[in-house]
Design brief:
two-stranded antiparallel ribbon, elongated, mainly alpha, about 290 residues, Glycerol uptake facilitator protein
Length: about 290
């Protein structure tokens, strides 16, 4: 299998960043929308596949099942050229550090891709909540099924369990997000290192499996997980009493809680993990070995 050595890999990342910086706003939004939906596909799949697994196989095995199926999203994004915010946290700044684009170009990319990712994830959350997460009842109504209850439980764990412990919860979410995007961008680097589709597939799969199974926080995945939980609580309120605990005490899930207790700290942590701990680190390690333009 063909292999790009580290210095060439870093140069290829910079070249990819130039291409991303030159995309039109329409293209950034459309590619961002598709990437958000692709990540949501993996997130929805891990929700369904992990439902009921923990009591039978144990919590660790349930996490492994989730991790095993989630990477389908990033594999699809990388192989089809879509725009994912967490990957762009490393790729576009690499081009800026090489002085091939401006830091204004970096921010432009981040803002529009983030919006596109959010809308795409939100759209897929709607599909899952209206479709596979509910089941028709004899009285003609729709009720949340086991998969939907698991989706609500995931959202509660990602919002209200942080809220319950205050500042410690925000810090935990932030640190988990650093770890997440550290692994996500290792996956992207490995995909760039490989020149063939099989190498890219496995280069992506293992680090992404690791971040999901470990329990880290990915802001784009959470753009799906958290709205899906909120939609289920809002549209089928019986699930709030059924789940009880923190969800019942909080009266459901609010957009304020979603952003404050998860998406904001997760986004900041993802930026640190991708930009600082991978992008800056690899640029400093290999800047003297980069081919001269």
């Amino acid at each position: 299998m063909a292999f790009n050595p580290p210095a060439k890999m870093v140069a290829l990342v910079g070249n990819a960043g130039v291409g991303k910086a030159k995309l039109s706003v329409f293209n950034l939004l459309l590619r961002g929308f598709m990437a958000g939906a692709y990540i949501a596909i993996g997130a929805a799949l891990c929700t369904v596949c992990s439902t009921g697994a923990a009591p039978i196989f144990g919590p660790g095995a349930a996490k492994l099942i989730s991790g095993a199926v989630f990477p389908v999203g990033l594999i699809a994004i990388v192989l089809t050229g879509m725009e994912l915010f967490t990957g762009d946290c490393m790729i576009v700044p690499m081009a800026a550090m090489m002085k091939k684009v401006t830091w204004g170009d970096v921010m432009r990319n981040w803002v529009w891709v983030y919006i596109g990712n959010f809308v795409g994830s939100l759209a897929y959350a709607y599909v899952m909540v209206i479709g596979p997460f509910v089941t028709g009842q004899p009285d003609g109504s729709m009720a949340v099924n086991a998969f939907g209850e698991n989706a609500v439980g995931i959202a509660v764990a990602k919002i209200l369990e942080y809220k319950a412990v205050g500042g410690a919860g925000l810090w935990s979410c932030f640190i988990k997000a650093i770890g997440c995007n550290f692994l996500v961008n290792i996956a992207i680097l490995l995909a760039i290192t490989a020149d063939d589709i099989i190498g890219k597939f496995f280069g992506i799969w293992f680090p992404i499996m690791a971040f999901v199974a470990t329990g880290f926080e990915h802001c784009v995945a959470n753009m799906y997980f958290l709205p899906a939980g909120k939609f289920l609580c809002d549209w089928y309120p019986a699930v709030i009493a059924k789940k009880g605990g923190l969800l019942l005490a909080n009266g459901g899930l609010s957009w304020g809680d979603i952003w404050f207790w998860n998406l904001i700290p997760a986004t900041i942590g993802n930026i640190f993990g991708g930009f600082l701990f991978i992008g800056v680190a690899y640029f400093l390690m290999f800047k003297n070995d980069l081919p001269k333009d």
